[in-house]
Amino acid sequence: MSGLTAVTVQPPTFEQHHDGFGVQCARPRISWRFSCLDERIRHWTQIAYEIEISTKDGENSRIFKVLGNDSVLVPWPSPESLTSRACRIVRVRCYGRYSLPNGHEEESITEWSSPSRLEIALLANNDWTGRMITTSEAWPLSPDGSARPLCFHRTFKLPLNRGVVCSARLYITSHGVYSARMNGTAIGDHVLSPGFQSFHKRLHYQIYDVTHLVASSGSNKIEVEVAAGWFASAWTWARKRFIYGQKLGVLAQLEIHFQDTIDPFTITTDESWSSSVTALVSSEIYDGETYDQRLGTNANPSGHSEHFTVQESSIPVSRLISPEAAPVRVVDRIEPKDIFKSHSGRSVIIDFGQNFAGRVCVRRLRKSCGSSVTFRHAEVIQNGGLVYRPLRTVQARDTIISDGNEIVNWHPKYTFHGFRYVEVTGWSPDDDDCPLTRSSIVGEVIHTDMVRTGWFSCSNSDVNRLHENSLWGMKSNFLSVPIECPSRDERMGWTGDLNIFAQTANFLYNTSGIIRHWLDDLYLDQMEESPHWRKGVVPLFIPNNLLRKDDDNGCHGWDPMPNAVWGDAAIMVPWHLYHTFGDLEFLSRQYDSMLQYLRNGVVRGEDGLWDPEQWQFGDWLDPRAPQNDSGRGTTDGTFIADCFLIESTRIIAKIACLLDRSKESAQFGETALQLAVAWRKKYLTPSGYVLSDSATALSLTLSFNLISESINDKPLDEQAASRLSRVVRLNDFKITTGFVGSAYLSRALTKTGNSELSYAMLFQKKCPSYLYPVTMGATTSWERWDSMLSDGSVNPGSMTSFNHHALGSIAHWLHADVGGLEAIDPGWKLFRVRPRPNRELLWAETVFESRYGRIELKWTLDGEKFRLTLRVPPNSSAVIILPVEGNVHSTSKIADREQRVGSGLHVLECRFVQTIWPPKALLPPWGRAEF
Length: 931
Ligand code: BGC
Prior knowledge:
Blueprint: E1 7-9, E2 13-14, E3 21-23, E4 30-31, E5 34-36, E6 42-55, E7 62-67, E8 87-99, E9 105-109, E10 116-120, E11 133-135, E12 150-157, E13 165-175, E14 177-182, E15 185-186, E16 202-204, E17 206-209, E18 219-227, H1 229-232, E19 249-258, E20 265-268, E21 274-277, E22 280-284, E23 288-292, E24 307-308, E25 310-312, E26 319-321, E27 328-334, E28 338-341, E29 348-365, E30 372-378, E31 381-382, E32 385-386, E33 397-401, E34 407-410, E35 417-425, E36 441-448, E37 454-458, H2 461-477, E38 478-479, E39 481-482, H3 495-508, H4 512-526, H5 569-581, H6 585-601, H7 637-658, H8 662-683, H9 695-703, E40 710-711, E41 714-715, H10 716-730, H11 739-751, H12 755-763, H13 772-775, H14 810-819, E42 821-823, E43 830-833, E44 843-849, E45 854-862, E46 865-872, E47 877-881, E48 898-901, E49 904-911
Parallel strand pairs: 3-10, 16-26, 23-33, 43-47
Antiparallel strand pairs: 1-5, 2-4, 6-7, 6-8, 8-9, 8-10, 11-25, 12-18, 12-21, 13-17, 13-19, 14-15, 14-18, 19-20, 21-24, 22-23, 27-36, 28-29, 29-34, 29-35, 29-36, 30-33, 30-35, 31-32, 37-44, 38-39, 40-41, 42-43, 44-45, 45-46, 46-49, 47-48
Helix pairs in contact: 3-5, 3-14, 4-5, 4-6, 5-6, 6-7, 7-8, 7-9, 9-10, 9-11, 11-12, 11-14
Bound molecules: beta-D-glucopyranose (BGC).
The site of beta-D-glucopyranose has 11 residues, from helix 3.
């Protein structure tokens, strides 16, 4: 070993947990990432690692040395399994081998990483002595019939003679959403905890370190305010309330540990708590909140007179889980861009300049007693007023009723809105006292606080805005679960939307926690035992909270509706997660869900493909489909379903193999072959054309490699590729694809050697096109390519949101083909670098934080000179494929078109000549067609 190297090891992480505090596992797997700034070090490969595990106080430290290359999810090395509440300090150092520019091979050892703190959660439900408490009487209702927020509280003193408090933890959850205070100080910075889940099957709880909030002498007060949240708010177009139960509840366990005694002092929720109304007169997710300052202040929400006695809740508490995903938080603040009078003159409009999910925070407001200020939220304005129609039944309204005192830093607590504009009534820039100004209010962006991992930018600012829109589409919709839009009366975890967007999402952020929880619920809801549910069918949205109950008379429920693409999420989403994060557990946990889908969730015809009588969403929102009949697009829904069924069957064959289920793998492999034969019989004409002859159909055919044979020596996939080229040119590079086709088209064109057509589509700005929304000022991905029509009016379709992540899937093409980065091996141990430059772009830069470290890729195009600069993190490697066959020369030693390189900095150059540009549309003799 020759001394220390410039390779550093970042603090280790545990399982897929976001910060190691509250890991629900006795033997957590450990991962670490590397960085290296010394450009002389090449091909650094780990040959062994050491993990040091110490107890919290630094005593009892043990080092475990393991030979090997693994640095992602290595097994817990100690023979000792951890128990509930255990704390450990863990650090890592690694032995590596690398080469220097002079070709010498060396070995070295890294410094120890900074330590990571690990704390185990409560591993068993019987670690809980607290009970879910609720009111003894019926839960009080707000005037609109919603569950009124209540505060549960308890005062206590610490026992005498127990010594100094060394740590205090609050374990807490609710039926509803909550916020907690200790001695008047807010606990934690979570928003809307415990989040949205299938509450009858799993319940997330949070752990807070409250050591600093406990008073060792005198009295302590803990208060927990609970509101309807996802548990009981009016939900969907059916506005069904109390879906998970008629009463909200709180379950809390405060454990205070002392330096000199082993037994903690514990306060748990039980009948000794009290509850009372708060200053929140009403609060629901869709409709917003009404805060009556006269009933108390934010600082003292429980200082009110209306009290309720408390008893244990009769609603069963399901399996308690400390989530791996980070909580929802305020992750960003946006200052108003503009404030102006509405067209009617009766209200004021605030423009935040960005569409997002969140809420407003009033920095300072003073009004006379009894007067109210109302904020309504919407995504777009038209004719000088906010357009509320796309929200459908949603009110998106927050109201403050003043008691005459100043209000500082007020925001609604248990709601979120999807908006760019806010209409304010009752407060104006013209007010003499405390007028509304740009500094009186701020927009708070909220979403699950995932770590950002992917970036893309290039020399074209419109394309950058398109990418930003996709990013904001994700930010706005990964809010506790991956929902589809944050604004109208849905905000549900539609399975198809995530299936389409998953690869983009996994690149932009670390989604491992949020999607894993969603998949847990997918399986549990899929296996629902109910006379109204066919077990195994994948629900259309997760949590599946619209399932009909016996007492509902079917008035609001959606009975089982097997559907491809949406259902295929059960197989494809875990598959994509596995590829990004390299965790086989994503596959083993979901394997039965996948089997159930293929065995019971697909309605098959005699040939094993989908029964054509089964209605399908198909290429949802194909721009040519009727405005209010979005499944009736130009590509047959059953065709799409069949393509996905074959792909899913192939994927599960691979998964079964990875999980050592070779017999099942062979069976699925065989079934996939049979289905592909049936598919060809059904959809290939004798001359080898594909039915339907649409961009979506051809893209799926090519993406899923559904045809490989030749007719008269002409390979059919080439024929399909030229047909796809024709369809794209015939449509003048405008979009003819919906949710499904749009996710596959550009990559299919690129894959078949027609990347110039993808670029021609990218630069087309007429409606519908990728950049059309950008030309209309979009700041998020829209639900439809033409959610706003070119005259500035809102598409009359009843489903028209301006913040849907699904069509943001175009960013996957930007990352993988324009930028040129894509995983080959799971977890990005080996990845592909294959940019497809275009003359219209001078450069593109793509960055990804893989499980090994930061990958940086930039290419520039200066005339015919193409230059690629790539940084590969230690312990991983890349296959670089330069853009042009032949004509390749290089200033570095690497001159071949395809190179495998290890870690380090690599600079390659070649000549790039683009002959076909711009490609020609296939137009009628009289010029451009009207679409
Ligand atoms: C949602 C979609 C979803 C679809 C299912 C819509 O109302 O917003 O994004 O996938 O329904 O067809």
